Amino acid sequence: MNDFLIVGGGVIGMMTARILADSGADVTIVDRGLLCKESSWAGGGIVSPLYPWRYRPEITALANWSQGYYPQLAKALAEETGIDPEFRSGGMLMLRVDDEAEALAWAEKYQQPLTQVTKEFIYSTEASIAPGKEQAIWMPEVGSIRNPRLGKALKKSLEQRTNVRILEHVEVKSIRVMDGRAIGVNTANSVLSAGQVIVCSGAWSSGLFNAEGANGENLLPQLPIEPVRGQMMVYKAEPGLVNRVVMLDGRYVIPRNDGRILVGSTLEYDGFNKQTTEEARQSLQASAEAIIPALKEIPVEHHWCGLRPGSPDGVPFIGAVEEVGHLHVNAGHFRNGLVLAPAATELLCNQLLGQQTIIDPAPYQPSSRLEETEGEII
């Protein structure tokens, strides 16, 4: 029997497995498909919430810690695995921001480098931006990471650890509970046992919170997490057309080292539907070309979508599930899973390993969050 069983092999699940394994624990990580092939793969990889001053303090606390950790994590993974996650620290330029006063107040409160910039700065920084932009917000320390490569590096890192077992294409049906505590999970064909169970299954997390008691009642609380589809596209451009994250009216372009430019994303409530739509394609193209007109002459290479784990107020559930012993959750990060992943995993692992926590864990505790946010999902 393993010390820890992690359900969900996205970036958060893999980072959790890596930390726990390095503490000396035996870890199994299980996923219904392949590791890092859901929202962790589908996202853009901006290492900041979009318009960060519009988020709750709980998000800011996690994001600030993660932003400082990503550069060293990317370097460590590249050295360890030979796979470079391509962390870029070019900054983020947000065009035509209406609530600049709120942005500046937030920056002062949290001591974040954020400034108002003029037309001259905009075009000297990114010459390909569409003409006519008069003002922007500039955050010089915001970076981005190439999330599919991050996933590959994390997976290879786990494969190199002898105390980690990876189970792919194994669908977990429910949490297995005995005498008031989680003892493992039920799959379609077997039972997986463990000393502690951790649910990191993103949009699928709420469906796992079912464990039937002797009288047929569900022993577990219901997590208010639902899938929120996000569609994105990528252009196969040459390096240098765009060099940093640029945002306009809620949409963004993200450059990659090889010149590719991502554009995203939509926000759609349509259950577990993972089909792309022509309407979204046209909307994304219009947004991309409104930011960088030269993209009109560049072909779209790929159009895809992923399912975010929508949660009340966008604040994730991180910590022990008080109703059932030995059960923990790290899910509900909504649009900020990659942004918050390092801090969210460190915070949970601090608690699992009896360590001093990096930040106050109270605002993320599942039981208290469920009481505060019952029934409402943004």
Explain what this protein looks like in three dimensions.
- The structure is a single chain.
- With 378 residues, the protein is an alpha/beta fold.
- It folds into two domains: 185 residues, 3-Layer(bba) Sandwich (FAD/NAD(P)-binding domain), CATH 3.50.50; 134 residues, D-Amino Acid Oxidase, Chain A, domain 2.
- It contains ten helices and 16 strands.
- A hairpin with a 2-residue loop joins strand 11 and strand 12.
- Helix 3 packs across helix 6 and helix 3 crosses helix 9.
- It is globular.
How is this fold's topology laid out?
Blueprint: E1 2-7, H1 11-22, E2 27-30, H2 39-42, H3 57-81, E3 92-95, H4 100-110, E4 115-118, H5 119-125, E5 135-139, H6 147-159, E6 164-167, E7 172-178, E8 181-187, E9 191-199, H7 205-208, E10 226-235, E11 245-248, E12 251-255, E13 261-264, H8 278-291, E14 300-310, E15 317-320, E16 327-331, H9 337-352, H10 366-372
Parallel strand pairs: 1-2, 1-9, 2-6, 3-11, 9-16
Antiparallel strand pairs: 3-5, 4-5, 7-8, 8-9, 10-13, 10-14, 11-12, 12-13, 15-16
Q: Tell me the count of domains.
A: 2
Instruction: Give the DSSP E fraction (strand runs of 2 or more residues).
Output: 15-25%
User: Percent range for helical residues?
Assistant: 25-40%
Classified by CATH, the class of the largest domain is Alpha Beta
What is the total tally of β strands?
16
Q: How does the overall form come out from the CA principal axes?
A: globular
Average pLDDT rating? 93
Radius of gyration: 21 Å
CATH architecture verdict of the largest domain: 3-Layer(bba) Sandwich
Q: Compute the number of helices.
A: 10
Give the N-to-C terminal Cα separation.
39 Å
Low-pLDDT stretches are none
Query: What summary fits the major beta sheet?
Result: 8 strands, mixed
State the order of secondary-structure elements, H for helix, E for strand. EHEHHEHEHEHEEEEHEEEEHEEEHH
The CATH topology of the largest domain is given as: FAD/NAD(P)-binding domain
Structural class: alpha/beta
Q: So, the CATH homologous superfamily of the largest domain?
A: FAD/NAD(P)-binding domain
GO molecular function: flavin adenine dinucleotide binding; oxidoreductase activity
InterPro entries: FAD-dep_OxRdtase, FAD/NAD-bd_sf, Gly_oxidase_ThiO
Pathway: Cofactor biosynthesis; thiamine diphosphate biosynthesis
Keywords: Oxidoreductase, Thiamine biosynthesis
